[in-house]
């Protein structure tokens, strides 16, 4: 999906955001979602990813901008990025207004997913939001047996990259488990042909 056609996460969530202190994008990748919040009222925009490569170049490419010293200063001032696996990050050190975690948790077992949801929830301030998106067991790309090997009922491994293992949820049953413990914003609960997304409010 191109930058021009992908949905803007800030636009999706803006009506439900009530606290605007620290946003953290867990697995920020190439910064698309963080950039959606660039000119928002959030005081701090943080991103974590173990594969950060050249984030300023990614930023300029997404924005279609040339390098200037002023742009670089703005980038450094606005985005606080850390090259780190989120499992090594101290989520107890701050209280977050918004936590984004897209396309990360399907790399972990269901029990681990629930444990990470609890970790994130405990790191949120009152009124904060937690946005989650992950692949499910009807995702045609993740279950394509030409490229993926089924190693358990809902667990698939990439045939060419054995470290790439997808623990795919049953969307309905997983959402029911989440609803038992957390308050979901129903208008943000979306299941499409590849992924499920939902928003928890603390």
Write the layout of secondary structure elements.
Blueprint: H1 9-13, E1 22-26, H2 32-36, E2 44-48, H3 55-63, H4 69-78, E3 79-82, E4 96-102, H5 110-122, E5 124-135, E6 148-152, E7 155-158, E8 165-167, H6 171-181, E9 183-184, E10 190-191, E11 195-201
Parallel strand pairs: 1-2, 1-4, 2-3, 4-5
Antiparallel strand pairs: 5-11, 6-7, 7-8, 9-11, 10-11
Beta fraction of the residues?
A: 25-35%
What is the CATH homologous superfamily assignment? Vaccinia Virus protein VP39
Whole-number count of domains: 1
Determine and state the CATH class. Alpha Beta
Number of helices: 6
Helix content: 25-40%
Low-confidence stretches: none
What's the alpha carbon Rg, rounded to whole Å? Answer: 17 Å
Number of beta-strand segments: 11
Shape: globular
Question: What is the string of helix and strand elements?
Answer: HEHEHHEEHEEEEHEEE
CATH topology: Rossmann fold
Described by strand count, sense and barrel closure, the largest sheet is: 8 strands, mixed
Structural class by helix and strand composition: alpha/beta
């Amino acid at each position: 999906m191109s930058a021009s056609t992908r949905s803007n996460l800030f636009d999706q969530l803006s009506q439900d955001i009530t606290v605007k202190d620290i946003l953290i994008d867990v697995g920020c990748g190439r910064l698309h979602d963080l950039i959606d919040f660039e000119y928002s009222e959030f005081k701090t925009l943080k991103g974590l990813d173990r594969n950060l490569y050249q984030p300023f170049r990614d930023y300029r490419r997404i924005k279609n901008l040339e390098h200037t010293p002023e742009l670089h200063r703005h980038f450094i001032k606005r985005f606080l990025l850390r090259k780190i696996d989120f499992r090594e990050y101290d989520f107890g050190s701050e209280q977050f207004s918004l936590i984004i975690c897209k396309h990360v948790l399907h790399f972990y077992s269901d029990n681990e997913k629930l444990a990470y949801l609890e970790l994130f929830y405990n790191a949120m301030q009152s009124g904060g939001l937690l946005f989650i998106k992950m692949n499910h067991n009807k995702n045609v790309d993740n279950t394509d047996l030409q490229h993926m090997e089924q190693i358990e009922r809902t667990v698939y491994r990439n045939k060419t990259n054995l470290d790439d293992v997808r623990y795919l949820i049953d969307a309905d049953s997983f959402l029911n488990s989440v609803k038992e413990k957390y308050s979901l914003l129903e208008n943000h609960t979306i299941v499409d042909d590849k992924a499920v997304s939902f928003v928890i409010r603390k």
